Amino acid sequence: MWFGLLGPLEVRVGEKVAPIRSPKHRILLAALLLDAGRQVRTGRLVEAVWGSGPPDHPHKALQIHITRLRSILDTLSPGSAAAIVTCSDGYLIDVAAGQLDLLRFRRRLREADRAAQAGDAVREATTLAGALAEWRGDPLADVPSELLRGAALPWLEEQRLRALERRLDVDLRLGRHAAAVSELVALTGAYPLRERLWELLLTALAADDRRSDALTAYEELRRRLIHELGIEPNDELQRLHVNILTGGRTSTADTPAGRTPVPRQLPPDVRGFTGRHAQMTRLNGLIARLDHAGGPTLIVIAGTAGVGKTALAVRWARRVADTFPDGQVYLNLRGYHPGQPVTTAQALNRMLRALGVPDAELPSDRDEQISTYRSLMDGRRMLLVLDNARSSHQVRALLPGAPGSLVVVTSRDQLIGLVAAEGAELLTLEALSTVEAHAMLAERLGTTRLAAAPDATADIIAGCARLPLALALIAASAATRPEPSLDTLARELHRARRACARPPCPPRPAPRVREGAGPA
């Protein structure tokens, strides 16, 4: 059995396409396939299927539709029902990479990375073309769920465009200028504000001895950007324009492929991550703006200790990692660590090492560090996660100078300086909702244990102020000490909170020391 997401939802058995007629079944299948191999929580599936109008007993209704979907799959291919696995608080679909077009697409991108690192541009171009051949049309076009489409379409489309731009760039390096021009003319018409496509078009036209057409195309883009966005073309386009005017080099044909390292430094995904659907959707929206910003796209995720800032940043970063083919860098700035925060010099050196600079070549001067770092970042599309920042000052030197990259900063402070001066977006993270907190405990302890003690569960959630870190610690305590009931844990938590709430004992007066006297 084969599943298709990169176009209309498709289930294929052999050469035969098997229709999934029920809209609800299509939504469920698409939601599971988008996170293939990972649990999709019951609450998210309910929201995807019924939106803001769930039935009276949503979990039971969902269970019925899952059973029907399993039956449909099993009818199409006996044994396939087992692919939909029931988890502690949701379901997952277990498919091999070869069974889902989205997974095959990603696998081919990784193969293209290896070809690039080996300096084999021909194999890189062929592999990228194979990856793009997995796309059959508009994803989720026949899946009637605004939640799924709003969350998934931006990053799916961005991955396709990035792969397409990369394949065209390799084609230009291989000297395939004329073939690329017609494709790029169509693409710039379809995506008229996507500057990377215009860079490739101008390069292809100039390399094909069509300088006047390249200059005309640049003026067309410039007028459009000024009229619609009020901005000039980015620095790379302006440099390219000057080179075309002066007859300088524009072709990338002799650019060595695969010489720069591709860092993959994101921490492991966070177990028990719950909710945050609105925040994930907002983060997804940043992707579409990457090529229109005057500099790097920047967002600050702010919130109190333990509210889940790092968990959100890492979960989202891992989901969109393929959108940033030049790498993902994670750096803990230790802003609120008991020890010393990471200094600017230390942070820059770590960034430079991630970009392939040997220790012996690391600059010692701070200004030189910054200029080297920004030069290396120019033209790259990277995702930077700067975790646990204490101040705007700690972050500023780490911001790339050119557009194309995205920087996610987490901090207990709102870092208003970055918002005011660097145009950062601010996402203030609040505690989980009661439903999300309950789902998090269910993921860690199981729904059966929670259902046996609903009052204690509610007390624990309230006692932890719905903070993910506090809930995780309580869940860990319950998991490692299975003998205490949740009622016992709730009472222990209540006593601990009362003890913390009491004012401290007044200090005892220092004992008087009588001259010449012994102990009193």
From TrEMBL:
GO terms for molecular function: ADP binding; DNA binding. Pfam families: BTAD (PF03704), NB-ARC (PF00931), Trans_reg_C (PF00486). Keywords: DNA-binding, Transcription, Transcription regulation. Residues 500-520 are annotated as: Disordered. Residues 1-95 bind DNA. InterPro entries: AfsR-DnrI-RedD_regulator, BTAD, NB-ARC, OmpR/PhoB-type_DNA-bd, P-loop_NTPase, Sig_transdc_resp-reg_C-effctor, TPR-like_helical_dom_sf, WH-like_DNA-bd_sf. PROSITE patterns: OMPR_PHOB. GO terms for biological process: phosphorelay signal transduction system; regulation of DNA-templated transcription. PANTHER family: TRANSCRIPTIONAL REGULATOR REDD, TRANSCRIPTIONAL REGULATOR REDD-RELATED. Belongs to the AfsR/DnrI/RedD regulatory family. This is OmpR/PhoB-type domain-containing protein. It comes from Mangrovihabitans endophyticus.
